Amino acid sequence: MTILALIAIGLVVAVLVATDGGRIAGAIEPDQLAGLAWGAGILALVVAGFWRQFAGAPGKNLQALLLWCGLGLACIVGYVYREPLQEVGARVTGALRPGSPTIGPGGTVTITRRSDGAFLVEAQVDGRSQSFAFDTGASAVVLTAENAAALGLRPEAGAFTARVATANGIAYAAPTTLDALAIGPITERRVPALVAMPGALDGNLLGQSFLTRLAGYEVRGDRLILRGR
Known about the structure:
Layout: H1 2-19, H2 30-56, H3 58-80, H4 82-96, E1 102-103, E2 109-112, E3 120-125, E4 128-134, E5 141-143, H5 145-150, E6 162-166, E7 169-183, E8 186-196, E9 204-206, H6 208-211, E10 216-220, E11 223-227
Parallel strand pairs: 4-9, 5-8
Antiparallel strand pairs: 1-2, 2-11, 3-4, 3-7, 6-7, 7-8, 10-11
């Protein structure tokens, strides 16, 4: 290999001298041919070095070569099928951690249904973690009195004048506004919300005052998919 590289370089030098700087075959500039020759020569030297090392321990080096080929193939397959793999990853994560938002293609958020059939969504309200039950029947985002108090929201007794429709019926609540409500990368600011009277609800509700701000949402089998704007 080394001898072939030197011969190739020598031939290029001879051609350059013979052509005296003119085009070779009317198409290739001498400096272009020289660059190609130098590249071919260096490649031949590198291949010769690898071949010498490979010939010294063919079994071990063959295993290493196959390993690298397998890793390269895995990278190619992972890139080509990245979206289906992301979907599979979302399902696995959702099964292990129900309610935890999983980020999918295009910034979508996927929530996996719990074993009891409900969708429990983990969110950030004004920077603090809160769990919400997905409820399209709720006209607004609704916080229990206890969870609202943890966020510093404590309406006065006379403020519970709003009627809110939920899956469990009508409840009375106090209007408020959440500075930010985030689910994964989806963040909505100044979200109208309600604080339910103490004992009126068992948990927070993710209702229409947040859902109508999204680009879309859908339930597909055991997955809830949210799309931000």
